[in-house]
Amino acid sequence: LAGGIILGVALWLRHDSQTTNILYLQLGDKQAPNTFYVGIYILIAVGAVMMFVGFLGCYGAIQESQCLLGTFFTCLVILFACEVAAGIWGFVNKDQIAKDVKQFYDQAFQQALLAESDASNGKAVVKTFHETLDCCGPDNAIGAITPLWRDDLCPKKDSFLKNIIESSNCHKKIDELFSGKLYLIGIAAIVVAVIMIFEMILSMVLCCGIRNSSVY
């Protein structure tokens, strides 16, 4: 059940409309940075393997098989080590993920402002960012002034005053988007780690109990 929950959360994060709209963008020959998906794929793999390993442990307990319970314990140790490694990687790269996406947005924004024709797809990339995140411009100043000369790049508001007041800078929105998603991944990883620790303890207790009872 825990494996199924983790798998479900990971698949939801993987197919979330905001992240997919942004991370599937392409600016000329350059693809949007999708390092974020590495953590998601690790969660998907852990969830799927946990479901299989959980079945193995359950079957081993029913059959009172020391071999199956030992295999279950070994698989849990390997999964736990992989999760710790993934957690360390995520902690090290948590700021870099948002930074790479912001750099990609800034490049597209510059191209959109400088492009004299639709030959560059910078305008399409910027509009996707603006519509998905409901923002405009890389910072507050540019975000408020941009609609004055490039109203085609920003989400339409009912009035000019409302446009200036409600326009949020996209750097802030990108930070909020990925920090929120990484926060969910972190919670899921901690829950899995706690469950795994209990599983390892209980499987060894059960295995030792079976071994001792078989003596008599």
From TrEMBL:
Principal location listed in the UniProt entry: membrane
Transmembrane found in the keyword field: yes
Keywords: Adaptive immunity, Cell membrane, Disulfide bond, Immunity, Lipid-binding, Membrane, Transmembrane, Transmembrane helix
Transmembrane segment boundaries: 36-62, 68-92, 182-206
A Pfam short name: Tetraspanin
Localization in the cell: Basolateral cell membrane; Membrane
GO molecular function, one term: lipid binding
Gene Ontology terms describing biological process: adaptive immune response; regulation of cell population proliferation
Disulfide partners: 135-170, 136-154
GO cellular component: basolateral plasma membrane
SUPFAM superfamilies (alphabetical): Tetraspanin (SSF48652)
CDD domains linked: CD81_like_LEL
Topological type in the membrane: Multi-pass membrane protein
Entry similarity comment: Belongs to the tetraspanin (TM4SF) family.
PANTHER family in the cross-refs: CD81 ANTIGEN, TETRASPANIN
Protein name: Tetraspanin
Species whose genome carries this gene: Opisthocomus hoazin (Hoatzin)
